[in-house]
Amino acid sequence: MNPLLNALLVLVLALNLFMLGTSRILTVIRMVTLQGILLGVMPLLVHEHAGLSAALASAAAIILKGIVIPFMFIRAMRDVQIKREVEPLIGFLPSMLLGALATGFALVFAAKLPLVGEHTTPLLVPASLSTMFIGFILLTTRAKAITQAMGYLVLENGIFLFGLMLVDAMPLIVELGVLLDVFVGIFIICIIVNHVNRAFSSLDTRRLATLKE
Amino acid sequence: MENVSSIWYVPAAILLHGLSGIPGLFCSRRSTRAPYGAAGLSLAASLLGLFGAFQVMTSHAAPPPLALPFHMIGSEDWSVGMDALSAFFLVPLFLLGGLGALYGLRYWAQEEHPENGRKTRLFWGFCVAGMALLLIARHAILFLLGWEAMALSAFFLVSAEDHLPEVRQSGWIYLVATHAGTLTLFAFFALYYRITGTLNLHPIGGDQAGLGALSALFLLALVGFGLKAGMMPLHFWLPGAHANAPTHVSALMSGVLIKMGIYGMIRFIGFLPAPPASWGVLILISGCLSGILGVLFAIGQHDLKRLLAYHSVENIGIILMGFGLAMIGRSLNRPLWILLGLGGCLLHVWNHALFKGLLFLSAGSVVHTTHTRRIDRLGGLAKAMPWTAALFLVGAVAICGLPPLNGFISEWFIYLGLLHTLNPSPSGWAAISLAVPALALIGALALTCFVKVYGTVFLGRPRSDAAQHAHEAPLSMRAPMLLLALLCVLIGLFPWWVTPMLNQAVAVWMNRPSAPEMNLAQHVPLNLVTVIGVAFFLFAGWISFRLFHSLRRAGGKTSLMPTWSCGYARPTAHMQYTASSFVQALLHLFRGIMRPHEQRPDMHPTFPKEASFSTHVDEPVLDRQILPLGRLLSEWFGKARPIQRGLINEYLLYVLLAVVALLVWTMPLGRLCECLFTR
Asked: How many angstroms separate the Cα of B4 from the Cα of each of B49, B78, B483?
């Protein structure tokens, strides 16, 4: 059990709730960036004797999630000239409460999971589940495409946290492959965001429903 | 030793047929030679297969089954085997498989159908090979492999012209029907495996299963094979598929493919020990229904190939009547009923393949030159296509069951068998003979229907430009028709030529060696048929000779006059009797069943304007039951539309809810509650 790791996980949980509560997109981007960097550090902390592969995964995660992806988000935001998420489907306070509820559920559920708990800190699984839930909440309650893309990134962060438990078992190539997936996904979304904005003169994904047959 | 080698002919033929379309795939789309290669291979394979089949049928001992050198599923070897019953079905298969390939050379010529010619030839080979495989399979998985190869390649054959929407629709309906049938067969073989513990196909022992399990097997076989055979309520795929397929494919499907359903019924229902008589009665009744309704709905059709397709339903009905009688005979232990019933059933399988193949091929010649299947747009074709007209007439007389052609012989066997139920001490089973008037009704209605078709299509005057400019089919299309017509006449005149093979096949089905009392020739005066038939042909020849002579003496000139037209001064071709008007009285008589939709013109004003009149008869099962049911279901499922609005947020929410529900479900909720609410 690593006290530093635990502290970082608590920070990740707090960032999750903060993300749900703010309307400024730039703030959300900063939160996601910070979360990504924190996650990037974690592989080094999970094991005392972290090898080269952990260092490599860590470096790749920090570069992608801390630098490249936020940069793409900010550019996309500048291109489409929006600053705020104005009309979410669920208000900011209710979604924050929902997030808290999800975190609670994750804690209760993880306690019941039959885990091989040798080297995991007790917070790792709940933090992972809660981050996934909050990613989902962002995806489902926000209307703007760019916020949804961030929800997608948060969701992936949750999966990354879960993967930390398997850092020995999982080959490096899988980790890097997941990161590449995320990168490509976000890259494409950021390009599409611009086109959606031009075609529909809005970033509201609800308007995409007109594409339905 | 000779028998051991004879079993190899059919697998070799299967291989050749299956491969026949493959070289053509590597040839150019414009290559005109590749089709000849495929047809040549098909013909060679058919000759080989026919040789093998006849060798089995004429030798008295069936060759021992041959274990294939591999097995893929289960621990048992896949084996193939031949007996007189398999061989009996192989004969029409290889006959039509070869002749149809020859016919398709000009009918579906590569230069006229560059986009689907190669596909059609490829799947033709696969389809024939699949059918032959299922006929010789002695292992359930091998049987199903052959069955699916046949069913799927037939789907591609039916939807050859897949750029036409109605072809696509019939193809889909066929695919749904055939897969429903295969699913039923899966259930059948699974149950069979549960009862016998083996997938090798052999009769079930009398003590292995109770009546409940056997009845389930019987019903599964009846539905699964009945769907393929086109038995009445399950025939809904058949008219569309037969009408929209290329005509040589229709001939193969109607002549042979639907008979695979009959083969399955005969073979696998024959496996069930001690059948109750009610099974046979059920088969007999469904046979009567198929026969009468099939021919009735045939009368209401305006499409030449669709009409022939309904006649397939009718003939399947006649075949099932024979089989039903044989089943009743088996339950009550009356060998004579079995002999006459199954003999008539099997011979009708051959005969239907011959005359329906002939009818479809001659209809194909008509369609090929006029490019229409609508009966009311044809007319007067006998002058332009004398060969086709004469051959169609042979097929029409045969299908109506008139002597001296082959259709009469098989129906005669069934008549005799049905009448024999009255013969020894009329028990309660004499009621079976009520099927006799049903069979007679079928024959009479079929005659009406073919008088309508022949009169409208070949006699009178052309009703459209297309019919005006028709020309005779080329030799490669006429030759297969000629051969089929010749076989129809031969079986009609010399039925004692086929009865030894029939005896053997019946003996195989009864699981006992061919006994001397099981001889059709003993119970039916076959020689009399030959005498009467030959006398008839001599008489007809003499009459035509005299007519020809008197015409010659009159100057050899025939004058063309319009038909008496009630004194109307300038009759046109459109004023002839149409096919619909010819059968209008019958349609009216049976309007309770047929329910024809008539669109009548409004003739009220003093000077009526241009008007049109049309009638249309629905498909009784597809249009009246299945499609309304489908619409009802889609209406119900349409109520789920609101949850599918195209909003990505909502879809993600569904994913989330599903994940949460699954997580909650895995949680030990009971223990959780205990923890929370107890101290």
From this structure: 15, 17, 31
